[in-house]
## 1
Amino acid sequence: MRGFGAFLAGLFAVVAFAVLLPTAWVTANIADEDGYVDLSRGVLEDAGTRDAVVSAVSDELGGQTRQRLVDLGVPQSLIDQTLAGVEGFVGQGLASEAVVDAWGESQRAAHRDMFRQDGSGFVVELGPLVNAVAVQAGVDLAVPTSFPIEDDSTASRRAVQLIGASPMLAVTAGLVAIVGALSAVLLARSRGAALVWLGLGGLLGVGLSYVGARMASASDVTAGAGAGDQVVSALLDVARESYDGLLGRAALGSAAVLAIGVVVVIVTAVSRRREPIAGP
């Protein structure tokens, strides 16, 4: 009976561990505002995303500048010449430290919009970024406080809702994993065998989490070419790299538990062989 109880406890621990990996990562890197800002800083390193952001910011700067020049009575040909280099200086501005910091503030504002009470979908907030580029270019523009690019689809809303629930799921899964693992070790007839089982289960959980994350991210990627779509795609790439790092560490930890279990089993078997056999 103890062996069966240890098996069930270990099974619960393994399943909970597989759930803990993605929920803990989402809690630390997506649900948490500072974690999301840190994660999103890697987005501008993607060339396609930079181009899309440059285009979106250039449209905002160019639109306002064109209107001002029209109001001043500047000839259309001169306006076109003036605005021809907008994307060029926007691209140069994105390389500055001030604009990179503004990108972080943009994503901080986007994070707050995503988790507001009315349940928004995915949001890319470009207001602070547009303002920083304008400052770098020496242009005085009336940048709107909120300049969002939103994905308000049903899938996006559902993903944001799941992200909001991730902290509670992570805490629950973590408690179940800890209690299950301790129970499995304490109930097992062989502590070494229990550790081997938990180590193998941990490696299996890592593998399932890896496959599940790939399937989930692939199913939600859209083929759009807009700035919002590009940012989402680049953010997914950055998230995959970050999550793969977590899975790598989890795999090493599981392998260590497996190795310790094997050592315990071997030591226990050797010590039993060396015990003197009682005489008749």
## 2
Amino acid sequence: MTMRQILSGCGLVVGLWLCTWTGAAAQAVAAPRAEACNAEMGKFVQALDFVRDAQGPQAATQLREKLLPAKLEAELMGQDGTCAVVKYLRGKRLLG
């Protein structure tokens, strides 16, 4: 085995390790972001629950459809999950 073959093998091992490490780091960063988005979405759901309790399920359903149409919600969830929905709601000034 030549030195070049050994170094090529080491490069592959180091490359795989770096890919694994950076993937794990990206997941570690994404987890708190997803939790924050879920918490923000929870606030929106709580507001709808309040409307449901105060005015009934039909009023809450109509309000939700007016503020966040189901088709749009599905499209946003497909893009970036809950964070895309939260970004949309913030843009409409429905979340703080």
## 3
Amino acid sequence: MDKQEGGSVRRLSKIIMATGGTISMLAMCCLDSDGLYMYYAGAVCILGGFIAGAGYGLRVLSERRREMQIEMFYFHQADKLDGDIELIDCSDSMKEAR
């Protein structure tokens, strides 16, 4: 289930980035218009860049979350193995040897 969730977030981030890039490219085609429409096209271009950046941020967060899950899995496995270790107090034997 975790692999499916991570894959869907990655897929969603790619879709968001592609949508933002497409919006920006289409707005750039309209930048040569005159008057007020040029400013609208510029604003839409910037908005598309923000949407693409949000998709990239979602992808980075997804990767960090995946790495953290892997790290915690191995850390938890190590804790299970460390439960069998018994510490031996050597301070008494060192005093007797002197």
## 4
Amino acid sequence: MTLTKEQLKYLVTAIATLDWKTNFYELCRILEIDPNNKIYAEEKWEQFHKLSAALNYFDLDSLMKLLEAYEQQKGN
């Protein structure tokens, strides 16, 4: 399954928006993580921020090229 450019843009925008608007406890609720499990919950909080940042390292055209390359390799 290949994502369309619109679907990819939606994913990147959704993660970035959640990163901007969601606090630690809300993220724990969304992911069904116990916020009292501090080490694990804080690790996921940091990973979520990194995910959001990493998705914005590349523009959508570059991300689409990476997905297309994956699809080609998957077929081999």
